Amino acid sequence: MKKIYPFVLLVAVIFSCDWKQENPGFERNILVNSDSEQLSKRISIQNAGVVNLLEPDSPNGRISEEEVPAGKIPMILVAQAEGPTHNGKTLRATHVDIAGDYAFVSYNKEGEEFLGAIEIYNISEPTKPKITAQAIFTTADINALKYHEGRLHIAAAFDVDAEREINTAAQYLSVSVGNGQFTSDFVKSDLEGFAGTGITYTSSHAAVSSGNDGIVALFDASHNRIASTPISDLRDVAYGNNTLAALSGEEGVVIMNPTNLNALSKINLDKDTPNSKRTMDINGDLLFTSEGAKGAGIYRLPSGTLVEKITIASNPEGVEEGDIVTNAVSFDEGLLMMANGGAGVEVVEITANNTTETLGIISLSGSSNFVKLKGKHLFVASGSKGLQILELERSTSQPLPGINCDDLTPYRGSNNLNVNSNDVMRYSGSAALSNLNVNGTLTFCGSMAVQDNMNINSNGFFEMSGSFSFGRYQGNSRLNINNNSVLKISGSAVIYGDLTLNSGATIEFVGQGSSITIYGKVTKNNNVTIKGDFIDTEGKLK
Q: Environment class of residue 418 by beta-carbon count within 10 Å: exposed (0-12), middle (13-18) or buried (19+)?
């Protein structure tokens, strides 16, 4: 039996299985585990902390010693999750969907063998994700999934030689989910083709694609096929602006009526690498496509008119040309994320009038093979480095009580911010910095992240309203609050590095509900003052 599979991330982990459920019928080969404590042991904060965007033209994707501007979007690597294993065989992440407090992740196994999984992550506490449920498919790859109104819709490929109840390798599955658990049996439907490759949901139907000599098919809530149309070498389907788009490695993008699959227009693209992972996203009347070595395309719906092509910004040394390709795209709230394989994740800002600006490359290790952005949550399937979970700290829209946020100027300076002893600086917005030194007075309202080092020196005063993050976990980053200096916080602060409070230092929390999370080492010298109403999540300031 030939297996067709998309090119996506390979991850590994040693995982002790304690299965909670083994279902009858074809589900005898679906093993469900709801032991959250055990499953979540694979999640690590070993490399967690502030992640700065790198300049695309810096050598090997590294920041040069020259002065560069501060980043616009503070980003935090919250955690990394190694992939699950079954009988010692490792799985790799293929797709992610995010809905509310939960993320849904699919997996398969590289090579000819059929083996896959679906996991549910609780992301309600951004800095502490948990895996709440897992389903291992011992005879199937899980290639894509989509959540819609309490049900998870799934594109899969089954081993027909191992499953007598399965008529075709390509399958559409669905299952009910709630509160981080699978709450019903899995239901399946046959598809022509060797593998289910993409899945989405229109206003009324599940739409699924299958690869090679495959189809796009619509299914109702009872798994009845409503319509279908053959399209070769399908990679993905996406719905938006009352249109359904199907991405083919041979035929480009076919834009269709979502109720009867009649073609409305077509976007011609270069023939793509066989069996490679490619995705699309739709926002308003814009279609975003991953186009391999060509980067990403932006098109107008429903006409398919080209708006702009975005090339891959980084060409790092030592990376094979075939691994510098856009595998996946994801768009949300003005940001386009491009998973560019060995060239990392490219972040592109798109304004209301569709002008684009490449903000930089997220400094993650490994090959970036899939990306999903929604709100403040960003998931990246990153080669052998596993599934990486990030949080974006966008600007706080409403000032929090306790700090005067009137008459502020958006920060547009260097990523090394120095406040001299006689300076009084007042800024707003979002800023990602490498280093911060405060000798005078600094007020910042919005979102700030400092990656490497931070000092509030003698008699310095720094007040922060909104969200603040500092350092890297076990990364030799240190926040020093020195003699007679003050750190004043209204909102949330997360310190991944170490914190030193020298004699006479003060941390003051203002307003209600402020919180601080400290993962590094805390050193407190004499006459240190900590006051105000706050939540100390790790108990480090007691």
A: middle
